[in-house]
Amino acid sequence: MTKPLNVGTIGYGFMGKAHSNAYAKVNHFFDLQYRPILKAICARSADKAKAFAENWGYESIEIDWRKLVERKDIDLIDICTPNNTHAEIAIAAAKTGKMILCEKPLAMNGPEGLRMVETVEKAKVPNMVWYNYRRVPAVTLAKQLIDEGRLGRIFHYRAKFLQDWTINPELPQGGTALWRLDAATAGSGVTGDLLAHCIDTALWLNGRLDSVNAMTETFVKERKHNLTGKVEKVGIDDAAIFMGRFHNGSLASFESTRYARGHKALYTFEINGEHASIFWDLHDLHRLQYFDHRDQGIVRGWRSIHVTDGDHPYMGNWWVPGLQIGYEHSFVHQVADFLKGLETGKPAMPDFRDAYRTQLVLDAILDSAKNGRWVQVGQG
Amino acid sequence: MTKPLNVGTIGYGFMGKAHSNAYAKVNHFFDLQYRPILKAICARSADKAKAFAENWGYESIEIDWRKLVERKDIDLIDICTPNNTHAEIAIAAAKTGKMILCEKPLAMNGPEGLRMVETVEKAKVPNMVWYNYRRVPAVTLAKQLIDEGRLGRIFHYRAKFLQDWTINPELPQGGTALWRLDAATAGSGVTGDLLAHCIDTALWLNGRLDSVNAMTETFVKERKHNLTGKVEKVGIDDAAIFMGRFHNGSLASFESTRYARGHKALYTFEINGEHASIFWDLHDLHRLQYFDHRDQGIVRGWRSIHVTDGDHPYMGNWWVPGLQIGYEHSFVHQVADFLKGLETGKPAMPDFRDAYRTQLVLDAILDSAKNGRWVQVGQG
Amino acid sequence: MTKPLNVGTIGYGFMGKAHSNAYAKVNHFFDLQYRPILKAICARSADKAKAFAENWGYESIEIDWRKLVERKDIDLIDICTPNNTHAEIAIAAAKTGKMILCEKPLAMNGPEGLRMVETVEKAKVPNMVWYNYRRVPAVTLAKQLIDEGRLGRIFHYRAKFLQDWTINPELPQGGTALWRLDAATAGSGVTGDLLAHCIDTALWLNGRLDSVNAMTETFVKERKHNLTGKVEKVGIDDAAIFMGRFHNGSLASFESTRYARGHKALYTFEINGEHASIFWDLHDLHRLQYFDHRDQGIVRGWRSIHVTDGDHPYMGNWWVPGLQIGYEHSFVHQVADFLKGLETGKPAMPDFRDAYRTQLVLDAILDSAKNGRWVQVGQG
Amino acid sequence: MTKPLNVGTIGYGFMGKAHSNAYAKVNHFFDLQYRPILKAICARSADKAKAFAENWGYESIEIDWRKLVERKDIDLIDICTPNNTHAEIAIAAAKTGKMILCEKPLAMNGPEGLRMVETVEKAKVPNMVWYNYRRVPAVTLAKQLIDEGRLGRIFHYRAKFLQDWTINPELPQGGTALWRLDAATAGSGVTGDLLAHCIDTALWLNGRLDSVNAMTETFVKERKHNLTGKVEKVGIDDAAIFMGRFHNGSLASFESTRYARGHKALYTFEINGEHASIFWDLHDLHRLQYFDHRDQGIVRGWRSIHVTDGDHPYMGNWWVPGLQIGYEHSFVHQVADFLKGLETGKPAMPDFRDAYRTQLVLDAILDSAKNGRWVQVGQG
User: Fold this and answer.
1) pTM listed for this prediction
2) How far does CA B320 lie from the centroid of its chain?
């Protein structure tokens, strides 16, 4: 029999939906001791909380996250709210001994992130951050290939995250739907939203990043603000590019933007090693491109691996070879690994400290872009 | 509030899992009056039924489908069992007034299918067959483009379904896992298993098929039979190829096999019209390739449509543009459409009669292959 | 020093240009004893012959091919004229002891082809037919991989040649530019024009084809004839599909058409063997797709081989890795191999007899399509 | 009748071959008043010059380029020698009134380039630099689309040139074959060799680049030197990355390396505009990827344009739609445009001044990388 794990979710937006779906599905496909129970959904609007609860089968609602955090019948707090609320909620939840799953980026900046890390570590509560792309099976396979040493010495790591949804200058900033365009709520623009994903994956696959040199740009300088109704200066970065050096000697080349017409969510990364190279692309997330120079010369070529076989990461739990899974499954895998971590005592990553290291890179990027110079990355 | 619809599922295999997942998820993503309730799972083994029930949340189990069919608290019977059992179960279920969802192919052959059609039509029970690929969003989009008349006169329709999982001659036939290799249980090989999907899609997209000329082959002539333990003649077709004529004057070119090394589930179709062409591929099911000759000459090219935008079929119910869904979602869509059909009184297709028409094409193919001649397709 | 080989080319059209380019280039890139000299160009129009001679550096012109064939200073006759003239010219040229390179298809039909074969064999003159696609490096590489036994037992061979240039019903038939639409001149439509290429490659890569079952279609039944000025019945096949059996037990699936909107010259073939599969596509002719099941499972995938390395067939003679060659180079390679064959005494293929075997398949296809039945392929 | 233009080529290596091929072919495919005559080939080794002359049909040889430059029967000097010789030869040739075609990069650095520019401009001799990729038809088509204003405001320009041929640390530096690894001869590594191409294209397509911030890396610090026989420090950059700002407000993101395993000559660029985006890739040089947001939403997608139609740039001069050309044709186009420029009096670009602007970007990159700071690009 499975043990119930009572989840209290804060936020009913895109991520509230993605996480709830993961909790609802995970035990159908993974053999685990724990079973998440959708105990409470928390939102400032009672109507919206009720509707969400009914749809997803949450047993109760809260309209004040502080109440939720205090509830004895909740084991785990899942933070799906805008970036500027993560720290306060997480710290409060840790103090009541709750496990915490927090949306990315961890915090508004490094120092805030450090406080969160120290609190959860002191409280000894299980904690994790939703950098979900690690658990796309093709990305996990990349990690496996790297860990097996197949690539040899690494020369290059390049990543991009390209979108095009904010090109229209009439799009306002701020409010429930568009808080990502409001610097006060989001902290930064593409750096915290998109580059954060790229960096989490990079640190995981390629190790520590020592230094960066960045530039950012805000293409649309003013937008109407949804909360004030006035045209206001845009404080976020619309695009960010950086180069850098990894501790292993490889060069970093990163870029993200919301002004790349034709790309919706084109997160790609490529790693070039002495012996082999790897490429992945979120738009075809079920494939991994792999080139191995040790293949015989005349038949050497980039292999398009359709990551749907039973011996590919996570895929034995799903359908049959050839049948692809999608975006949402990365969240299911993350919950599965988190629960497995509770079973085994080996926590699933990235935890708050791991996500804090990503935060330090984000800080270095913004610093470098502001000051036009190379910046050493703080190491957490 | 939603109305409960009590489901009794027969079979806990791959399809039992795919359907159960669809029932469990559909209301989370689609706004519907009806809500499927996982009332009972039926399997010959009580242990397996119990384990499946626990995992998926079925409220009860049965070990005899006849008992399930008789239960008053069941609204809908879902048949996920091997092909040779469809008719008997469906006919019994129809007689007790149950709605019926039946796995494909509908029957072992046309005459058997016709008895099923006549029974459900007489009983006036809602009925549908799980030709799920119609509801991959890219395929539904293809249908929409065709219905809008964008292609003009159609010249060619070609489809393939290529797999490679039975190349090993040591693979046995028959039994729970390998009943698809046993002619007595499956009726045919790739014709009923794979071509059936291609034909369902083709009849839907391109209309009636008038005549066919087919060949089949059994590459591995003998395999050990799991039920008898003896090496026995293989009765199924390992590969089937046919050409034909559609009623609209276009030419058909179809092929399926389980001996195409390198392809796991490569279902593809292409339609060439006077003005435009369409191509789709199950290995990248979230994309539709579209060529429109009316585009200006110098920028004319095949468009790779990433079918993940909010105005693409079904996609407004899922995530955000750029984030792909997978195989399992086609089943969720089918349940959603079935339930919507109950609401609106406009039944979702394909119903038994529609699937019977596919069965008649399968019969014509097998007849043609056996006799080496053109065969007129019966029209149901 | 190189030995001159005096070439007399008949026809200044597309193929006259492609061959002349090959003669002009071949010694720049291949180390050969013989050097083709552009001695004479023959065309019915003296003006056109002169203009072509000036442009390409032909030393002389002829307006009657019979005169050219009689000239003592000509070593090799290259036949680039419409299909219905091949036999008469080739037979005359053989009788005067000329080497002969003839455009494909060899003849209007098998019996005519046989007469050509018998004449050149009796005359013992070097002879070859311009099935140029064998010498696209990726195709030659496919041959090499097959000959090394990498594929194991072959199950499937499928090929397509899809074009879209005759969809417009206002396009007339006949005359210099459109003789391919005129059955009296071309013999057949896509069968002799496009399937002929597919069959030549197939016989080379996969061996003898034993039997075929075909269908053809003429979508536009009447077109204005350029020679008569009247609307006349169209005698050619616009599309042809056939299935068949190779002598090695593999199944054939072939299709060609000029009504596949979006495809200009999409010649593709795929071979599925027990261990490995190969795919090639004329639209990206510099790549070969290769799947080898013996690769380790987790990194198994279709390899996209960029056939531009120095150890790939012919490529050591061109540029550097990564830099692709194009369509025209297949003709250069064919001339190079022909000349090398003269040096070594091992004639380059396909010779007339080899091309006659292709002709017998074409005859079988047209017979089968006409009579709606399986036809045994004659073996030459 | 065409007018002869006597060419004296200096250098018989890869580029000597590519240019000679272009001179030999251009009049076969382009209707031009001028016809290049292969008058003299110059190389320090008389044997090699003779062999090359015989192979390509050069009428004479020289072993001292100063003699060649003085010859009255030479109209045009083509410089195909290593970078450190360009300036001296070009300046001498200009002084004798010769037209000059010079391999890229123009010079070892900006000041040297400026002297070359001033000399040719003073001498009023036609001059051009072999940045051949502008004349790949797909790239020229990109220029055409941009000039038509289809992209709207430009946000991003990114380019890469990735190779993998120097990963092996046993590869020596210097000498005839490997002068590109020797800083004294090449001036720089990938910056002058590969980025130079990317920058030429970028300035042409996207206008002036105002500022850059770069990093470079030498992965293999020491290699045996072919001239000294000793292990020596490697002076070139193995990899270079830079970000920057174009004058039109768009952001630059560039990278080149010879350590990207799996890529032979992967030159790619992508331009993201307000309305449309463009992508091109040298490994499939015959295709242009184009996304136009003004396409109707449900059928919007990246178009893969097979740039082989008669109305595509240059393609009307070659074969028929669907049949691709290759790398070498870019040189033929460049000669054709140069000759057409002589006819019309509108010189083909890039001339020395244009190439000098590229040189100034190269200087800025090397300066920035050395000093770790943003650098303003000099404008020539």
Assistant:
1) 0.98
2) 27
